[in-house]
Amino acid sequence: MFFLNGAHKSFLTELFKQESITKVFIVRGGNSYILSGAKDDLETILNSLKIEFTYFQEFDVNPKINDLEKGLKRFEQYAPNCIIGIGGGSVLDMAKLIRFFSIYKGDFKTNIFERKNLSKTQLICMPTTSGTGAEMTHFSVLYENEMKYSVEHRDMKPDLGIIIPQFTYNNNAYLTACTGFDALAQAIEAYWNINSTTESDQFAFEAIKLLYTNLPLAVNCPTSDIRNQMAKGAHLAGKAIDITKTTAPHAYSYYFTSKHRIPHGHAVAITFPYFAALNMEHFELFKNQTKLRDYQNKIEKLCLFLNISSIDKKSFFSRYISSIGLQPIFSKEIDVFEALCAVNKERLGNNPMFIHERSLKSYIEGLNHLQ
C-alpha cells in the first residue's frame, strides 16, 4: 500500500515503468472519475508512456452478476496485463471481481472456487472516496435478484492499493457523509467483533480516532488536511475489517440498499444506533461469557475516547449521524418481515451479542413513523 500526499503523478509514472505495464483495463466510475481529477492525471500518464488503455464503466452502483459477466467478457477480449480500479467501493469491488473470476470458476453463493487460470493479471486499486477500504480487503459485494453476497478469497485482494487523498477533495457533503460513516462503522464493528485480534484492534482504534472527529468537519467544513486524515482513517478501517469482517449494522444494511436504493454508508447508519446500544450496554447478551471482562474493558476504552461513558448510546449515535445529514429517509414503507429476512447471516454471526428479533423488529417498525 502507498499513501501519496502529493507527487502522485511522478510516482505512478515510475510504477508503471517498473512493472512493465503496456495495456490497461480501467474499471472506473462515471462523473466521479472526472470530478476527482483522476481522469486527467491517469490519462496524461498513460499517454506519455504510450500505454494502451480502455474503460469499463457500464455497471450499476451496486455490482450485479449481469454487470460482472459483461465486464469479464470485455476484459477477456481486451487481454490487458494490468487492471486499474479507480473509484468508490462499488468500482473497486467490480475491478476485484473481474480479476478474480478471470482466474477462478465456482459458486459465489457458497464461496467454493476452483482455479481455472494459472496466470493472474496485476490489479491496482485507487479509491476516490474515504471510503470502503476495498483496496485492502479480500472480499467484494455482488448482488443477484436483490440479494447481496460477499465473495471472499485470498486472491480477491488487490496486488497494490494506492491512496491519493487529492482524489477525494471534490466529493460533495452527502457522499462524504455516506462513505465516511461506512468507514467509521467498519472501524467500530471491527473493534467489537468476535473475530477481533490485537492487530485488528490497533488498526480499528487508530481509524476511529481519525474518523470520529474528522467526519463532521469533512462534511460541514472540509480542508485538505481533514480530507487527508479521512483517507488515512478509511484505509485503516479497511485493514481492520480485512481481519474481522463486519457485524450486525452491515448485515442488516443490504435490504435498505437493494429495496430502497439508499447508498451503502447511509444504509449502515440506519440501524447503527440500535446495535451500538446493544453491543455497548447489554453485556448480559455477550456470546462468550468467559471473555466478557476483556470485552467490557475494550468498550470502556472506546466510551472513554468518545466521552460517552454515562450517555445512552442509541441517542448519542443518532445525534452524531444526524449531524452529518444521514437521517433515515425511505421512498416507501419498510417491509419489516422482508428487512429481517434479508439479513446477511455470515456478517451477523460476527456480532458480539445475541440479538432478540422482537426488539429489533420493534426498532425497524419505528423507522416507518419517522417518515
Helix coverage percent of residues? 40-55%
Q: What is the structural class?
A: alpha/beta
- Count of structural domains: 2
Give unreliable regions as ranges. none
Give an overview of the whole structure.
The model has no long low-confidence stretch (mean pLDDT 94). The strands form three sheets. This protein has a six-stranded parallel sheet with strand order 1-10-7-4-2-3, sandwiched between helices. A two-stranded antiparallel sheet has the order 5-6. It has a two-stranded antiparallel sheet with strand order 8-9. The chain folds into two domains: 2-168, Rossmann fold (3-Layer(aba) Sandwich), CATH 3.40.50.1970; 173-369, Dehydroquinate synthase-like - alpha domain (Dehydroquinate synthase-like, alpha domain), CATH 1.20.1090.10. A hairpin with a 2-residue loop joins strand 8 (139-144) and strand 9 (147-152). Helix 6 (173-192) runs parallel beside helix 8 (224-244), helix 10 (253-260) runs antiparallel to helix 11 (264-281) and helix 11 packs antiparallel against helix 13. The chain contains 16 helices and ten strands. The chain is an alpha/beta fold and 371 residues long. It is 53% helix and 13% strand.
